[in-house]
Amino acid sequence: MPVSTNPTSPESAPADPASSAPSEPARLDTDLLTLAVDGNGIATITLDDPDASVNKISSETLAAFSEVLDVLERNGSVTGAVFISGKDDSFIAGADLDMLQTFEMPADARMISRRAHRLLERMQNLSIPTVAAIHGPAMGGGLELTLGCDYRIATDDDATKLALPEVKLGLLPGGGGTQYLPRLVGVQQALALMLTGKNAYPGKAKRIGLVDALIHPAGLARAAREAARKLARREMTPDRPSPSLGERLLESNTVSRRLVYQQARERTRNRTRGNYPAPPRIIDCVQTGMEQGLDAGLDAETQGFGDLVFTPESRALVSLFFAKQTGDDNPDADRARSLDRLGVVGGGLMGGGIAEVSARNGVDVVLKDQTLALAAEARKLVWKSASKDATKGILSEFERDQIVERVVPTDDYAPFRPCDVVIEAVPEDLDLKRQIVADLEAVVREETVVASNTSSIPITDIAAEAEHPERVVGMHYFSPVPQMPLCEIIVTDATTPEVRATAVAAAQRQGKTVIVVNDGPGFYTTRILAIFMNEALLLLEEGADAEAVDEAMMDFGFPMGPYELFDLVGIDVAAKITEVMSRYLDPDRIEISDSAATLAEADLLGQKNERGFYHYAAGEAGEKDKQDFNADVYRHVGGRSRTSLPRPAVQERLALMMVNEAVRCLEEGVLQTPTDGDLGAVFGLGFPPFRGGPFRYVDAEGPAAVRARLERLAREHGSRFAPCDLLVEHADADGRFHAD
Amino acid sequence: MAASSGSSSNGRLTTPGRTAVLVDGCRLPFQRSGTGYQDLMAYDMGRMVLKGLLTRTQFDADAIDRVIMGCVIQDVDTSNVARESALGAGIPQHVPAFTVTMACISSNQAVTSGVDLIRGGGADAVVAGGTETLSDPPIRLQRSVRKRLFESRKAKSPRDYLELVQGLSPSDLVPESPSIAEFSTGEVMGESADKLAAMFGVTREEQDEYALLSHERAAQAQEDGRLDKELHPATVPPSFAPIEHDNVVRPDTSLEKLSSLSPAFVKPFGTVTAGNSSALTDGASATLLMSAEAARAEGYTPTAALRHYTYVAQDPGRELLLGPAYAIPKLLDEAGLTLGDIDVIELHEAFAGQVLAVLEALRSPSFAEENLNRSSPVGDVDLDRMNARGGSLSLGHPFGATGARLVTTAAHRLHEEDGDLALVSACAAGGQGHALLLERWSD
Q: Which of A519, A676, B113, B415 lies at 20 to 30 Å from A461 by C-alpha?
């Protein structure tokens, strides 16, 4: 057979005579990587950590790369080098966060940063060309390592993404990213990548010059070696896109670059309200490096990295990262039934959102409403959302069609029979919900989990008349479902482990981070939010200036203030929740405001009718744009005369109300762990991520200080502020909710 | 031809129902698109090849029970191109005709649909083939303009017409031309082939060598007249100068020329080039299929019996063109055969990289284990038995007509090379594949 057994493939073609001078054969085999040289003198360095599913940048990895450079610097027969991962679907996932935890002082962090800088410098000083071959995620330190190479080739696969996500952990890219990235792709592109931490997918990476070529995964290694060989023989030079005219104009000189930095600083300030120290440091490093030279820039980066690792903001964000991992884990996975078919009752915003996240993750959905036309509205929501992604190129139109086709609207319960899980998402009405449970039990199989997406009614009440209360759970999603990462699962005394595990698996299949809480009025998230919102209404009744309160809470770090949140949720919905909650709450402990009902009666409903605390205008895509404040509200609640309270006083009253109630949930056993409490508040309610959650917040402020403040608030504003028992206990013992 | 008295279970292999046989087949010489047939519609080639088949077999068109033609790129004027071709060829109007489409295995589907009709007793004589022009792909106006044109049927006043053109931008008037890309993945077929070649470690040099081999074999078969036996010369307007030979084959190509080409799809590091890919081609092919009994009664000696066949389908994103690597073992298992039993193989050559990847998959123990659930590999394909007269790379590939060419060539080769069993296999867009067994008829 002349074809398949031919030995003279390009891989093994004779090497350049010039480069095959006799020399010791280069080889290296460490725990983390291997170095092997082919017939053309091209060394392939394959990184494959045997003890982990993905490669990470750790002290050991840096040491191994240093050894590689020792070999490449000394061995004269190697003509080029290719860096590639031995993992199937990832390049290097970023820095090892466990390593971050081991730093005892900023100098430890700075040393790692300097070691990474030294590696990049040595890579760039090599006399041979180096090529990074990237398939799968190349994140953080993994991407920075490729910046030391002469050429980057990536796969065009969906798994491939490049990012410097350090900012999401309150850090800056400490391995040379702030210096080498702007030099490769320009200041504006580099700042955009580093300040958002967003992924660059293959198409974009190629377009902005972050990678030089794309290929399919199967051809990656061969193509990278071909690139190294061609670079070595000077048969090829990297073909980088030239920057656009606008980019060139802005970035060509010091004066106009100053404008770029200034705009970036302003945008950052508007977005973060000064709560996050990393973004301004990133801009500083880029500016220093571009204006004062590489060495000054690298020094600034090292300095900044060491400082940021030890900020409370970064600590909190890192702790959330680890907490999220526990929320993405199903400890009882083997008891779970897989979710192949989901039933949804109710085709409103919530039902449609639940259908969407399911269909996007490959789950078939039957969605029922009273009429086919109402149910079809939910399918339309899925289509609209997926079409938006198709326009952006995130999905292909065909993928969009597949997703939409998974959602079958109906006005009939019969198609629910094969469903593994059914979730009802109808209005908050106990009788209606009980009726639906009964209707469902008449058709579904014995093992089907029946879930309620109630936001306040105790599951025990909903399941009270059920034939099988053991399979009735709460699955509480947050609006808008596709964007909000949390699902709060509510179990009762009757819930079986199988039902619980199946509900957790279902929410995780939908891409949600899960917390499991015990039943109770408002469970965890709605309860602490309701208390918080109630306090906002009391403030309003006392005559506080509402806009100033919203501003104060955004300064505290919430994504929006409480009144804007009322508008988003719907003031009538909030009134309904208040009504449900007030049935269960002790009127002696807490004073319940009825202002939400008053406003709802005055037809101030929020975004839905474009009149609430603010006026709204319907945008083109159906979204509601916030306009000016609606002073009409004051006519109904508390009168027109308004006072601006000092911001710290407002922040203290609202935030501590929520924090104290969160601790009470742990005390009462509604919450099972403080970590769940942190995850629920941050991912469900927008509690400031840089504070890590209510329990991290108490730990950081000190329980004694928090108790003292609550006691003072109780004296000033009433006993509803009295610190809960568990908080007092912690204060007495100077205990912490989190050990680390 | 004398009637024979053999039984219908003639040969080694038996299939359920009546035995379907290939009486004979032929095709028009395949022409690179934009050359010999550039002014023709697919229907023109279809009627010529049907007339050619009837002339060559001297079969009474009145006795045809069905005409089935494969076609991929449909012309809306002749959407049932089989019917128009049959009428144009003078096949009596009472003979029903239908068109099938299954990408590059469309005329394989035409043949096996005919086999099924015969086996089930629904037909005694079927003409199955395919026709394709890639010189004149349908180019459409954009949806926005089409929609307005549709609405224009109702327009009456000048003002109505004015409203119809309002809001149109000049860019709306740029027509859309079809590309050879998967609808579901958006991937161009050449990219899929490049990927597949890399997955199986097929190098650029191996692909170029295989392409060269294909051209050398086709040139040799053309030279020594073996190809002529399956050709029906075409004479077409305006010149009516006879077209007697395939014109895709390049007798003068060389490894040097092939290796100088740049990658055509995956740039700059891909391995699939224009030189190691099949070219856009126009052409048509047809076969006469009959029940063994009817053939005997009509006095025909069949060329081959059409035995087992199968269709398979894979993920179009990962294994678009790997169909034969699944279809061949499935078919051999069903027939109780191994590769060693096969004397003649006709494997469709979409790309040299695809052919070599299929051969590599068949010989790979890990592919057998992981993808076929077999403990041992399917085996090595003996290249001496495969595509001895060239293949789609050198003869050309009119999508809807290739399948019937493979069947006819395989049957002819059984006689010429004194073989007993022939295997036809092909890949198709959509991730689908086909394989068919022919057994030489001797009674």
A: A676
CA-based nearest distance B266→chain A, Å: 7
Q: Do A222 and B266 touch (CB under 8 A)?
A: no
Q: Which of B186, B271, B356 sits opposite A4 (nearest CB)?
A: B356
pTM of the model: 0.92
Q: How far apart are CA A20 and CA A18, in angstroms?
A: 6
Range with the poorest average pLDDT among A214-223, A576-585, B287-296, B392-401: A576-585
8 Å CB contact between A129 and A148: no
> Pseudo-torsion of CA A3, B206, A9, B374, nearest 10°?
-70
Answer whether A396 touches B (CB < 8 Å): yes
Q: Under 8 Å CB-to-CB from B191, ≥6 apart: which residues?
A: A216, B265, B266, B270
Query: Minimal CA–CA distance to B302: which of B118, B121, B426, B131?
Result: B118
For domain B20-136+280-304, the CATH architecture is: 3-Layer(aba) Sandwich (3.40)
pLDDT band at B288 (very low <50, low <70, confident <90, very high): very high
Task: Say how many CA atoms lie within 13 Å of A478 toward its Cβ.
Answer: 23
Residues of A in contact with B204 (CB under 8 A): 10
SS3 (DSSP) at B66: strand
Q: How far apart are CA A562 and CA A350, in angstroms?
A: 21
For A105-163, give the secondary structure using H, E and C: CHHHHHHHHHHHHHHHHHHHHCCCCEEEEECCEEECHHHHHHCCCCEEEEECCCCCEEE
Does A226 contact chain B (CB < 8 Å)?
yes
B389, amino acid identity: R
Q: Please give the Cα distance from A91 to A46 (Å, whole number).
A: 10
Catalytic residue check, B71: no
CB–CB contacts below 8 A, A to B: 62
CA distance A618 to A626: 9
Contacts of A12 in chain B (CB under 8 A): none
Answer whether A11's CB lies under 8 Å from A39's CB. yes
A230 to chain B, any CB pair closer than 8 A? The answer is: no
A223 touching B (Cβ < 8 Å): yes
Burial class (CB in 10 A: 0-12, 13-18, 19+), B371: middle
A180-191 pLDDT, tens digit per residue, is 999 999 999 999
CATH architecture of the domain formed by B189-228+307-435:
3-Layer(aba) Sandwich (3.40)
Q: Which range, of A100-104, A117-121, A214-218, A264-268, averages the lowest pLDDT?
A: A100-104
Domain A526-669+702-733 = CATH 1.10.1040.50: yes
Homologous superfamily, domain A10-309 = 2-enoyl-CoA Hydratase; Chain A, domain 1 (3.90.226.10)
pLDDT digits (tens, 9 = 90+) for B268-281: 999 999 999 999 99
Greatest alpha-carbon span in chain B: 77
> For residue B194, which residues of chain A lie inside 8 Å, CB to CB?
216, 219
Q: Give CA–CA dist A216/B204, Å, rounded.
A: 15
The CA–CA distances, whole Å, from A499 to A433, A438, A472, A491, B288 equal: 19, 18, 8, 9, 63
Cβ–Cβ of A219/B195 closer than 8 Å?
Answer: yes
Backbone angles phi, psi at A36, to 5 degrees: -135, 145
- Phi, psi dihedrals of residue B216, rounded to the nearest 5°: -60, -45
Contact (CB<8Å) B213/A219? no
Q: What is the pLDDT of residues B132-182, one digit of tens each?
A: 999 988 888 888 888 888 888 888 888 888 888 888 888 888 888 777 789
In this structure, CATH architecture of domain A333-521? 3-Layer(aba) Sandwich (3.40)
Task: Round to whole Å and give the CA distance between B397 and B427.
Answer: 12
Phi first, then psi: what are they for B78, rounded to 5°?
A: -130, 55
DSSP code for A82:
E
